[in-house]
Prior knowledge:
- The structure is a homodimer of 369-residue chains.
- The first copy, chain A, is of the alpha/beta class and 369 residues long.
- Helices cover 29% and strands 26% of the residues of chain A.
- Chain A has helices at residues 16-33, 47-54, 66-74, 91-99, 111-117, 140-150, 171-194, 207-212, 232-237, 269-272, 339-343; strands at residues 2-3, 11-14, 36-39, 61-63, 79-85, 103-108, 120-125, 154-160, 201-204, 221-224, 247-257, 262-265, 289-291, 297-306, 311-315, 331-335, 348-352, 358-364.
- In chain A, helix 5 runs parallel beside helix 6 (140-150).
Amino acid sequence: MSTLEHPETPFLALDPHRVDTNVRRLRRHLDRLGVALRPHVKTAKSLDVAALVDGGAKGPITVSTLAEAEAFAAAGYRDILYAVGIAPQKLGRVRALRDRGVDLVVLLDSVEQASAAGVPALIEIDCDGHRGGVAAGDPVLVDIARALEHRGGEVRGVLTHAGESYFADGDEQLRAAAQHERAVAVRAAQALRAAGFAAPMVSVGSTPTAHFATDLTGVSEVRAGNFVFFDLVMAGIGVCTHADLALSVVVTVIGHRPDKGWIMTDGGWMATSRDRGTGRQRVDQAYGLVCDLDGTPYDDLLMADASQEHGILALRPGSTAKLPDLPVGARVRILPIHACATAAQHDRYHVLDPGSRALTAEWPRVRGW
Amino acid sequence: MSTLEHPETPFLALDPHRVDTNVRRLRRHLDRLGVALRPHVKTAKSLDVAALVDGGAKGPITVSTLAEAEAFAAAGYRDILYAVGIAPQKLGRVRALRDRGVDLVVLLDSVEQASAAGVPALIEIDCDGHRGGVAAGDPVLVDIARALEHRGGEVRGVLTHAGESYFADGDEQLRAAAQHERAVAVRAAQALRAAGFAAPMVSVGSTPTAHFATDLTGVSEVRAGNFVFFDLVMAGIGVCTHADLALSVVVTVIGHRPDKGWIMTDGGWMATSRDRGTGRQRVDQAYGLVCDLDGTPYDDLLMADASQEHGILALRPGSTAKLPDLPVGARVRILPIHACATAAQHDRYHVLDPGSRALTAEWPRVRGW
Lengths: 369, 369
């Protein structure tokens, strides 16, 4: 049997028990609020993780690429939302999936896109200036809906994403972001209905707002992706604790610089990504928190810097902790800053037998576009 | 025939004519200095690009992973340096390659590693406090060499990497970094020779110092990797101009936020990486410079921000330029911040017919470890 000591480093270790706990927590919360979950598979990009998330039901999912849509459709998923504004050239692949019986819905926020689509779509609403979308009160919303129906499409409803909630400071701001996300989406749907469109789907979501919503009246579904794994950015926001993090990168010590207080590893940014998302949070975790092989964090030990295939472990600036004694060949686990980005650096997950160091399976990831 | 208008975005476009120009420039420079080039294949991770670099000679190369070593060995390369400090567990794969007739040399900087190795190795020397290595004057250098030979290894020589040259400010500092890198490596080799080791290899290199070296007396080879593609970090250091950049990411416009001065694209950090390496240079290029499909930069247009599959194009802060008129469906090319990191986000290169928009081939990349 393989264990965390066996695969050559660096590699991704996945704790399916933590995924399960994270999924149950969000499902319980959304069940209480009476709203469906449409998990975003862009974080794990894994059929196996998706099966953990919905117990094999192959229910509704959100995707970030048509490669994901195609992989999940091939596995039997039939209710797929492609939540990136549609580029007209991609409509051929969208139609091909729809012709195979997949209810693939696209996203758009302009009359140009709506005129080209010819397939069911959600209209993207901007709730916080984070990315794309039209304002809920903008009359162009109805123009887009009309253009969509005029050219053979179908107005399924509206979608918004509270992307700025990643920068919220404290529970009160998170609850406010969730409330605002809901209010904007519902208002936009009402504007469409007032113009004669049924707009049954009112889709909101981000991992922070999904967890901090207290009322989702008028919302039909919540999208969230990161919550399956969580990461240090989410812990910094306050959505989870370090003990919830399901993903880590296993690396090997390859050297020491006692003069600098450094432990060198064979895991660089190729293994962790270049994401430095905690850099603007209160506690900067650099490239990740270092744990022993059983997943217990060392006191104040960070992956402080990264080259392509080198990591530098060092104590947090100002720490009075003692650098652990980790000889050449010792392995440690790095908790990731941003799980979506770290996972994307790898082709597969090595799946842990929870509570032990045994590895029970390898789960592949979907790649490319 | 395929052109830049055909593959679905995002994808990597590679200009082989620029690679060729970049390679000729460095080879000419090193020929004048009388020293060999051992290209680092970690940037391109491509047999096809490597063939451009040495005209199909399959000469000496540097690798950053054993996956690269195995892929290049399978293609006929026989002189390979694995330039990341060796983790003892990886020695099985090293020996397997050596048993197949590949002269694979490893790197180490401790008696622990030397005692375990049993294969030819270079000893890593620290020239600027950037990463691993021992000081050139440290007596442990000879202890490492003795441990290596005692356990059946072979002291091939020394290696150093002026990693801090990436943060040099101006030509004078770059020339000084190159001179220092050379001096440290030669001094370390002399210390080994004084102790009775032949130490024939004196390996130095980084893309900046390789180009700014004015004297490489005593050096046997120069390693450089990034120079095949160059990128905005290298242009910011002054090693190349924007016109030398051989790699770009082709993306499609998917929306507009005129209220914010944003053009939205379907290329996010999944296509460019999270590398923000110009953030501490004089000119911050954010996630990259935006060019038209023919490769001409738009005035002051940056990829200002990135989500997983969304890019935001915007004018450089303070610019008085006009946002170009790029409708939904239009394609642009993003010049990368850090070519090694951007290329690593993709499985293949789409190869340009220089001077046109035609694509002539797809070249795969080596992945994983």
